[in-house]
Specification:
Mean pLDDT: 94
Low-confidence stretches: none
Number of strands: 6
Distance between the termini: 26 Å
Strand order of the largest sheet: 1-2-4-5-6-3
Shape: globular
Order of helices and strands: HEEHEEEE
Strand content: 35-45%
Helix content: 10-25%
Length: 142
């Protein structure tokens, strides 16, 4: 795919997540089956998902879900509408928090099945050379 979004503002035009909730910074790679993105928003002390003085690792699910929505938009050539998480499976968390990751987060989502009303993706998030979170998500489009 050509013309990949290169800023959070460009990404926000393609996904339902707006303002501070648009968490992805860049698309590194995108093809028909897979998207790889990076994000530095996990270090923001005003992160909208932050709880007290930390950003729990479970919030990585939102990063993965946004990568899936962005992949859908780039694959279909139009902004992605809202969707709902129907199921999560095989989720493994190898970290307690995301804000302790010094470098960027690397988010990868791979389409396992795509239908007109939903999709299934495998995902993983890494940072500082370690796998932080991985699993599968089933999304139903609104």
């Amino acid at each position: 795919m050509t013309g990949l979004p290169d800023s959070r503002a460009a990404i926000a035009r393609l996904v339902p997540h707006q303002g501070a909730m648009c968490l992805l910074d860049r698309v590194e790679v995108c093809d028909a089956a897979r998207i790889a993105c990076t994000a530095a928003t996990h270090r923001d002390p005003h992160h909208p998902l932050r709880r007290g003085d930390m950003l729990p690792a479970v919030c990585g699910l939102e990063y993965a879900l946004q990568a899936m929505a962005l992949h859908g938009a780039l694959s279909d050539g139009e902004p992605q509408g809202p969707g709902f998480v129907a199921a999560l499976s095989g989720v493994v968390m190898n970290a307690e928090r995301l804000d302790a990751v010094a470098g960027d987060l690397h988010i990868t989502a791979t389409a396992l099945a795509r239908e007109s009303r939903g999709f299934i993706y495998g995902f993983d998030i890494s940072g500082d050379g370690q796998m932080l979170l991985s699993g599968r998500a089933t999304i139903v489009l609104a």
